[in-house]
Amino acid sequence: MVVDLTKEIAELAGEIDVKRKRRVKGCGMADSIILATARIAEARVVAGDDHSR
Questions:
Q1: Helix/strand/coil for 4
Q2: How many angstroms separate the first and last alpha carbons of the chain?
Q3: C-alpha separations of 22 from 8, 13, 36 in Å
Q4: φ, ψ of residue 25 in degrees (nearest 5)
Q5: DSSP per residue over 13-48, as a string?
Q6: What's the pLDDT at 9?
Q7: Does the pLDDT value for residue 31 go beyond 80?
Q8: Residue 41 contacts by C-beta under 8 Å, 6 or more apart in sequence?
Q9: How far is CA 35 from CA 17, 23, 26, 31, in A?
Q10: Phi-psi sector, 26: left (phi>0), alpha (psi -120 to 50), beta
């Protein structure tokens, strides 16, 4: 899926990023943007790395 980075996605990604960095090592802003996009699009993220679970 390819989508534009909207203000809604960016704001949600910022919120996710703050929360996840407190408890997940190795989680970067790109991961938070992917998670925010999936939540808004009601999509599932399929990833093999540990911090995306």
A1: coil
A2: 19
A3: 22, 14, 17
A4: -80, 145
A5: HHHHHHHHHHH-TT--HHHHHHHHHHHHHT------
A6: 98
A7: yes
A8: 1, 3
A9: 10, 16, 15, 6
A10: left
Predicted local distance difference test score (pLDDT) of residue 53: 58
Which residues make Cβ contacts (< 8 Å) with residue 51, sequence separation at least 6?
20, 24, 25, 26, 27, 31
Structure tokens at 14: 């910022």
Count of alpha carbons within 13 angstroms of residue 21, beta-carbon side: 11
